[in-house]
């Protein structure tokens, strides 16, 4: 599971505050996890698997609507590409968008 955070940290475009900083993005995300501000990606993916099983293809950590949000793109068992927005602090699903028809 440690590897999941390391892999995702490489593709997280903007850190907790949504602003680029002097530290690399993965360090800012890791710091937010260590301070308890957001859940580790492994926890988020476990929660997501329970409700929307599929193959994760991309994860981004964004600052949206005043929240830190994990945006997870995955391919469902039915072959649909969906994006699931999850509150990074609680793991609650904020929205689901079907990306297949874009």
Automatic annotation (TrEMBL):
Residues covered by the PepSY domain: 39-97
Signal peptide stretch: 1-18
Keywords: Signal
InterPro entries: PepSY
Domain of life of the organism encoding this protein: Bacteria
Name the UniProt record assigns to this protein: Peptidase
Species: Paracoccus sediminis
Upper taxonomic lineage: Bacteria, Pseudomonadati, Pseudomonadota, Alphaproteobacteria, Rhodobacterales
């Amino acid at each position: 599971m440690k590897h999941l955070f390391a892999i995702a940290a490489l593709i997280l475009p903007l850190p907790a505050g949504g602003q680029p900083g002097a530290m690399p993005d993965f360090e800012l995300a890791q710091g937010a996890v260590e301070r308890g501000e957001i859940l580790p990606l492994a926890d988020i993916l476990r929660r997501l698997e329970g409700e929307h099983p599929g193959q994760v293809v991309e994860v981004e950590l964004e600052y949206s609507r005043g929240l830190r949000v994990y945006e997870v793109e995955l391919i469902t068992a039915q072959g649909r590409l969906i994006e699931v927005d999850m509150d990074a602090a609680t793991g609650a699903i904020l929205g689901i968008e079907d990306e297949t028809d874009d």
